[in-house]
Amino acid sequence: QPLIPQLISLPKILDDRGNLSFIESEKHIPFRIQRCYWIYDVPGGELRGSHAFKTQHEFIIALSGSFDVLLHNGKKEERYSLRRSYQGLYVPPMHFRTLDNFSTNSVALVLSSTAYDPDDYIWDWDVFQKACACKI
Ligand code: TYD
């Protein structure tokens, strides 16, 4: 069963004092969280990412503002727009991913299944394509 990207709506506790959402590891997302990082102060027109991960799973949330996530699975590309604090995108391993269209003051929260490991990155598009072809 191939792992597929998925937009996931998180619990949302509506309150006149302000709303609240939360994530529990392995409950609302299909992996155990080992690391969080966030991307902010992105200058207009900049891109982030443009790589794939061999093994790590990610969950990406637009905590503030909006941006797009482009995912390519080796066969086709799909664009996801993130703009809600209570919704995130599950990114399985072996998806070439790029973040773009960052709005001013947007914040991307990324939850990852692994510690930071530069060896888990695939930067080269051709290497990625070949690795995908091997799996099929
Ligand atoms: P990178 O993963 O390339 O950022 P993005 O894909 O979001 O554009 O990381 C940029 C730099 O930050 C790179 O030098 C590695 C470093 N880094 C860490 O040290 N730890 C981390 O958890 C992450 C995500 C990046």
TrEMBL record:
InterPro entries, per database record: QdtA_cupin_dom, RmlC-like_jellyroll, RmlC_Cupin_sf
Domain Sugar 3,4-ketoisomerase QdtA cupin: 6-131
Protein name, per record: WxcM-like protein
